[in-house]
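Memo to structure team: turn this sequence into structure tokens by end of day. - J.P.
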Amino acid sequence: MALSLTDKIVGFIVRPVETYRAVRDEELGPPVIYFLVLLIIGAILRAIVAWLGLAAIDANTPNFSLGIGGSIGSFIGALIIAFIAGIIGLLLWAVFLHIGAKIMSGRGDFADSFKSAVYAQTPSLLLGWIPIISIIFSIWSIVLLFLGVRELHELDTMKAVIAVVIAVVIFIIVIAILTVLGLAFLGGIAGLASVPGVTSPT
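Reply from structure team:
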């Protein structure tokens, strides 16, 4: 019997191991819908917090500080950015987790990595918008990530931990490469702008 949205939310917060086992045979449809619903809720709550000028420490979405006097445009902008960042973050984590799990001889397929990445974000998406204590829910999401990889890829605890660590290392490397390329690009633009005849007249 398929779990309802409420059953999943409660399950992944209070009894994650049993809930991961219950969704093991799910196809991609249900977790995609689950993620989009929670992402929309979380994005709205984060945008409200940002609009009020507060900040939540959360690894899954960027922080915004728009000030309590922020415009509706700023609110919508924060909402859109949080939504887009959530989707991109999910896809990256699913790919990196799958690589880590396969390196550690995980038996699951990409759908299992995707489900691990989706359901692990339950506490962070729903409660990660709360200022100051949001870090607690981010930590719980990381724990859920380990449990998801362990249960869905049928790994022992140590291999699951290593698989997640590998995913984190890949993530850091990718971010470092993108940062270097970004700085090189900006440096190239700055250098081009300094060439006589290229700079814009003032």
